[in-house]
Amino acid sequence: MANHGTKQYQPVYICWHETDFMGDRHVVRMTPHQRLMYRSLCQAAMFCSTRPYVPNDDTDLFVLADADSLEHWKQNRDAVLVKFYPAEIDGKPMLAHKRLLSDWDRINEVVNQKRSAARSEEH
Length: 123
Description:
- This protein is mainly alpha-helical.
- Helices cover 55% and strands 11% of the residues.
- α3 packs across α5 and α4 crosses α5 (70-80).
- 22% of the residues are buried.
């Protein structure tokens, strides 16, 4: 299994799979605002300091999800987090997402190939 360690690399951009996103029955059943919060969390996971995870803490999550307030986040939390699962990274509670971890592995594989190629050219 590839290394899901955080902070290895920060992507310039991420590939967004809108067809997969809107084809997911859990996502379609969310309210429009819940979908926006879910999308924000998915995108933030790839750029925040805990990438590719998000902290399992409501005070962080409501900000990363672009919720209107902590109370607004708590009202929608369960619907938004339906696709995330608990993980512990370096002893800290995090939330992981299967698709994001898969994308992260692919991103790092390409980065590592480019680094190896660059090292080979140096010698």
